[in-house]
């Protein structure tokens, strides 16, 4: 008996003289091969998406003066009043945003962002070299790969903006960066669904963007 069906036992009535036994064995062997192929495909998919999980912290140096970072640099809140901070070259002075401290120049990286029940947010990845002064346009052409929630609508920051079909509002968003492949993917961690994937070519250092 073939290795794939060696653990199965059959009634004596299913002898080799019965055509049905041959069909049964062939069917079992096919199912065994299909299961092995599926397992191999799943393992390959896991390997393709294997990434370094990043414990992102926020960088206070580029943070807009209206953004207040927590002591552990894990949370940020928007205030109406600007803080008295140095207007250094790396600080955003018009757009209320902040970058992660981590910089990526290769490999695969994954992190998650808690958005909770906030009604307005933008998050993703940007080039470290993006312009920090004056108004900015969050788009791949300007070095940003991001998604956002505005006026109750989820959107990918393409040019023009692309509406995203979302069944369950995400309370946590996963960001998967594959630097070599040139992909930034976003996932709704709440219902384990895919939101959007940007495909581009990267150079230089990329940083988490909020």
Automatic annotation (TrEMBL):
Pfam annotation, one family: PRY
Record-linked PROSITE patterns: B302_SPRY
CDD domains assigned to the protein according to its UniProt record, in alphabetical order: SPRY_PRY_TRIM39 (cd13745)
Region (Disordered) location: 44-66
Superkingdom: Eukaryota
B30.2/SPRY domain residues: 36-210
PANTHER family linked: E3 UBIQUITIN-PROTEIN LIGASE TRIM (PTHR24103)
Protein name: E3 ubiquitin-protein ligase TRIM39-like
